[in-house]
């Protein structure tokens, strides 16, 4: 059997989701490396390994017991005001949260190809914690009743948790 080797051309630790998105768009061979959780086993070369550890996502788990919580992901598209889910960081985050949270509820006003999406009002009503996962303008006026992690900085600062 051949040896599995994963090689990175460049390793970048981004500070927010917008930086990660920009790097993903520059080259199809740039990949998110969340502790390797999303990397397929095999020999390959990644142009740029994008590390999200400085985005503050770890604060969610440090400050909340996700195993008892319903987490609402607002925005599943790969960018704001879009219905395109290709290269979406939201689905990567959903996979990770599914391993840790009691339940993950997702919504997006533009995406129509995902049958698992819930209406925004359902997610806002049922979630114990929110993550703004795509920078849709529709989220700018929200006043969440639960803690909200706004990795895109779209909420008014008083609303973000």
What does this structure look like?
- The protein has 161 residues and is an alpha/beta fold.
- The chain folds into two domains: 6-54, 2-Layer Sandwich (Uridine Diphospho-n-acetylenolpyruvylglucosamine Reductase, domain 2); 56-150, NAD(P)-binding Rossmann-like Domain (Rossmann fold, 3-Layer(aba) Sandwich), CATH 3.40.50.720.
- Helix content is 22%, strand content 22%.
- The protein has helices at residues 17-26, 58-63, 89-100, 120-126; strands at residues 6-13, 31-32, 44-51, 70-74, 103-107, 129-132, 148-150.
- Strand 4 (70-74), helix 3 and strand 5 (103-107) form a beta-alpha-beta unit.
- The longest helix is centred in the middle third of the chain and has 12 residues, at 89-100.
């Amino acid at each position: 059997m051949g040896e599995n080797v994963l090689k990175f051309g460049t390793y970048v630790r981004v500070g927010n989701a917008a930086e990660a998105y920009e790097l993903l768009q520059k080259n199809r061979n740039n990949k998110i490396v969340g502790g390797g959780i999303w990397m397929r086993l095999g020999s390959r070369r990644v142009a740029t390994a994008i590390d999200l550890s400085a985005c503050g996502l770890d604060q969610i788990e440090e400050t909340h017991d996700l195993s008892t919580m319903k987490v609402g992901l607002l925005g599943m598209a790969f960018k704001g005001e879009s219905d395109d889910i290709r290269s979406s960081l939201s689905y990567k985050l959903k996979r990770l949260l599914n391993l840790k949270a009691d339940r993950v509820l997702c919504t997006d006003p533009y995406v129509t190809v995902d049958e698992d999406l819930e209406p925004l009002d359902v997610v806002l009503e049922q979630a114990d914690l929110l993550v703004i996962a795509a920078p849709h303008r529709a989220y700018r006026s929200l006043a969440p009743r639960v803690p909200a992690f706004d990795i895109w900085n779209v909420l008014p600062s008083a609303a973000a948790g």
